[in-house]
Amino acid sequence: MKTRRLLAAAAALALLPMSAEAQTAKTLKIGVLNDQSGLYADMGGVGSVAAARLAVQDSGLLEKGWKIEVLGADHQNKPDIASNIARRWFDVEGVDVVTDVTNSAVALALSSLARDKNKVELVSGAATSELTGKQCSTNTIHWTHDTWALANGTGKAIVQTGGDTWYFMTADYAFGHALERDTEAVVKASGGKVLGKVLTPLNTPDFSSFLLQAQSSGAKIVGLANSGVDTSNSIKQAAEFGIVEGGQKLAGLLVYLTDVHSIGLPIAQGLLLEAAFYWDLNEGTRAFSDRFSKEMRGRRPTMVQAGVYGSVIHYLKAVEALGDSKDGRAVVEKMKATPTDDIVMGKGQVRADGRKIHDMHLFEVKSPDESKGEWDYYKLRQTIPAAEAFRPMDQGGCPLVTTN
């Protein structure tokens, strides 16, 4: 009797490591870290949290017994605050992956942290192409858009239609600098000229002095190398100064659906913009957007929020295939080895440098007469194939490419 009890106890002890491993493999936490109260809150914010939760629902893992928690936090566009939140999430709360990561300076800071902690960073909101260039990382994937793609889509199209002299109004941080740099290179390569540029403080309410400088430059195109509320305010105030009526045109180099919604079609009509996603593009985008709208009181998703959904879906596929979410580097390698396919951006792949590639689309903002109702804002001008939409991998300087 005693022998049987000892054998039973030994068998139970032998099963403990397996049970702990199974429990670990069945549990993961997703942290959505972005701007939830400032100039980028509309294009990401709590909508990105909703998108991540929809991805978890659609993954099928909950039905298979996985316990998945989605957290959200506001980094206030400050790298130090973002790093502190992410470090606490990684070290104390057991978060496996951070997604959205609006703001390029924040994304670059967290890329190093995720690599050091062997976690995963899925960037949807930040746009600097440095994330897959010289500052690429084994633990970061850049999902939705980047400054190179935006410059080579919107910028090239504008130069080709006669907009060959430019003046840049540039948000004074990593994203704005990268977008200006990449667009200027495209303008010059296409035979255009840059007549001047000015740096603008992030989240400034008054663009009047900067717009006056742009107006006096005589440039045909005023390039807005900014985003979010900064873009909306720039365009609204440009209308007040009569810049377009005076013969100049605005180039919104990163414009979101929520910006057009805020500006209104009477002012935004005719604006060219590039996006990876539009809610009314096809059956898949409409199906996702209808579900998103129910969660977000009628609002339609931006490409950042759609990118959060797509990146989390692909992440969860990789985690399920591996059976474990704790080795971030291994998860990223699995994501790179597996073709992407989701209802928001279709088929694609994640390259060795961490750049996720897919088709990009050039849109024109409709006039009020063309729009059939609220959120019906875009008409498709051109689809840029995935192979052409993003910077060639051998031109970015990513060490993961040059050393392989």
Automatic annotation (TrEMBL):
Keywords: Amino-acid transport, Signal, Transport. SUPFAM superfamilies: Periplasmic binding protein-like I (SSF53822). CDD domains: PBP1_SBP-like. Residues 1-22 form the signal peptide. InterPro entries: BCAA_transport, Leu-bd, Peripla_BP_I. The keyword Signal applies. GO terms for biological process: amino acid transport. Residues 27-366 form the Leucine-binding protein domain. Belongs to the leucine-binding protein family. PANTHER family: LEUCINE-SPECIFIC-BINDING PROTEIN, PERIPLASMIC BINDING PROTEIN OF ABC TRANSPORTER FOR NATURAL AMINO ACIDS. This is ABC transporter substrate-binding protein.
